[in-house]
Design brief:
There is one protein chain. The protein is of the alpha+beta class. It has two domains: 160 residues, no CATH class; 200 residues, no CATH class. The chain contains ten helices and 18 strands. Strands 10-9-8-11-14 form a five-stranded mixed β-sheet. It has a four-stranded antiparallel β-sheet with strand order 1-7-6-2. A three-stranded antiparallel β-sheet has the order 3-4-5, with no helix packed on it. A hairpin with a 6-residue loop joins strand 15 and strand 16. It is globular and about 80 Å long. The two termini are 38 Å apart.
Amino acid sequence: MSRFRMYPTTEQQVTLLEQCRHARYLWNLALEQWSMWSRDKRRTPGFAEVCRQLTEARAVFGWLRAGSQTVQQQALRDFGQAVRNFYAGTHRRPTWRKAGLHEGFRIVGGQASRVVIVNRKWARALVPKVGWVSFRLTRAVPDAKSYRITLDRAGRWHIAFAVVPPPIAAPETGGAVGVDRGVAVSAALSTGELLTCPGWTEAEQSRLKHLQRRLARCRRGSNRRGRIKAAIAKLYARVRDRRKDWVEKTSTDLARRFEVIRVEDLRIAQMTKRPKPKFDPDRPGGFLPNRRRAKAGLNRGILANGWGLLVRRLENKASGRVEKVHPAYTSQTCSACGHCAAENRESQAVFQCVACGHQLHADVNAAVNIAAGRAVSARRGTPVRVSPKREPQLTASAQ
């Protein structure tokens, strides 16, 4: 996906928002129609039938007729594909699209190729019912057959061309590297490198607290509340873009330097769930402390470091070269002698083996174990070799 920042005029923004509303309305209408199906009823109408219903609706309602039929039909086609993906088991069940959160539509076909390069900094795309919309050139425009226009919560318009970039070629003598993901250190490599994802600055945190206090004093539905929410969204968008930029650069660097990249097989969705309430047996209706505040802080730290995004981009760029290792006791096992004990890790950053005295940064020690493909059996407490697809030589610094 190759994305560019769009700069529509004020009139074009109004028309683009109308197109987003039409696409969202038809998606939700198709979802409601599909959700009402049961085994004792007939099958839900297919794409040809819903297009016929759309034509009848456009003849009756002028606000729907004012929009682009291409955008509206594509929204129905996208919903049909989402349903097929759900039944195939590759995607989740289609959900409702909300205003302010899911703002966008897709253009497919010959209209998607109507792009004109103005100069080395600007280009224009012809959007149905909107006209020529300018966007900033940050890279070469790909030869794509479809694009998607979106509006994020910070009020920025983007155009994304649907292309699949080729994977990065593996180096001939790249070796293997282990990546240990953490909260204090975003990514520790088996080569000894410690990488940190940029987060909130002190000035941004101070401004966020100030805006949140102002938001708490605003009346719901007021214009001032909307302006403050937009300012908060811009702060979050700035931090999110910074994190994505770090992930893209880090994943590209790892894919170019190493032939095999090994990471822990972590279930991040389960790790970031809120703790379940603990009922107090002595007080009916009461609860025991469950460390909810501490868990919330840990969840924020995990999500702020982009654990899942980093592995996902590595799998895209280094296709077939990313291997996942079982994470059991990789941070408590000595990378020199293989002794596993909880006492080996003195603190978050200090690792000292109680058997051989080997000292190393705790995250780097775990990354070396991951690079070697080691996991530890919880039953026996002995190192177990994971059978990867291939066994290249470790780099000299990892050995």
